[in-house]
Amino acid sequence: MPIYEYRCAECGEKFELFVRSMSQQTALTCPKCGGQRVQKALSLFGVGGTSGNSKTSPASCGPGPI
């Protein structure tokens, strides 16, 4: 059961919504202004920090130094 991120095109409010099923989803309204021009936002996770950056973090799998 995913959590989707949305953005209101009328006031710019960003909010998250727990959705049990995409087929059961009805018209969305902005919790701030009540606007109905709501768009699904691009969800970015795991961005920032050093995880996965090979220049600044050591390898996380495989045998260690011998």
In words, what does this structure look like?
The chain has 66 residues and is mainly beta. The protein has a domain at 3-40. Helices cover 0% and strands 21% of the residues. It has no helices and 3 strands. A 3-stranded antiparallel sheet has the order 2-1-3, with no helix packed on it. The radius of gyration is 19 Å and the shape is elongated. The model has no long low-confidence stretch (mean pLDDT 76).
Strand content: 15-25%
> What is the topology, as strand order, of the major beta sheet?
2-1-3
Radius of gyration: 19 Å
Largest sheet data? 3 strands, antiparallel
Helix amount = under 10%
Name the helix and strand elements from N-terminus to C-terminus, one letter apiece: EEE
Low-confidence stretches: none
Give me the secondary-structure category: mainly beta
- Rounded mean pLDDT is 76
Q: How many beta strands in the DSSP annotation?
A: 3
Overall form:
elongated
Please, how many helices?
A: 0
Q: Termini separation (Å)?
A: 44 Å
Draw up the topology in text:
Layout: E1 3-8, E2 14-18, E3 38-40
Antiparallel strand pairs: 1-2, 1-3
List keywords for this structure.
3 strands; 0% helix; 21% strand
